[in-house]
Amino acid sequence: MFAATRRLLGKAKRPLTKPRRGIPRFEGGSSLLPILFPLGRYGVGAKVNRVTWNSPNCYWLITKIKYNKRAIRDDGSIHRGKVWGSLYWRDKLVGTPDRKVPGHCKPRWQLLEEPTDPTRQPLEKGRLHRKYFLQV
């Protein structure tokens, strides 16, 4: 410990305890991959946003998804992978298009608009190993 910290701790009037965790303000939502998996083209072209975002004009437009086939669950869904998209804030593109979506494994994502292409065909391209990954 630093000397200054020791001095402050010695002068503290209240007992040092951990702060209590607050009640979560936003309920519901799921992580991004289980939301996108049942959609056409596995979710490419869908508009999603976080539950905590208030405006419907703020969303991610999903451009590419890479599912890990080794993480298949009993119901057939895949919950591991990577997601790329373009961030639109107040209907304007922010930053570079087609970048990794941060926090895609965290909960509290919601689907705003489904993709327009109803087919469920993955695009096989690049030198991706077919055994382990499914790239859309």
TrEMBL record:
<protein>
    <submittedName>
        <fullName>Uncharacterized protein</fullName>
    </submittedName>
</protein>
<dbReference type="GO" id="GO:0005739">
    <property type="term" value="C:mitochondrion"/>
</dbReference>
<dbReference type="GO" id="GO:0003735">
    <property type="term" value="F:structural constituent of ribosome"/>
</dbReference>
<dbReference type="Pfam" id="PF16053">
    <property type="entry name" value="MRP-S34"/>
</dbReference>
<dbReference type="InterPro" id="IPR032053">
    <property type="entry name" value="Ribosomal_mS34"/>
</dbReference>
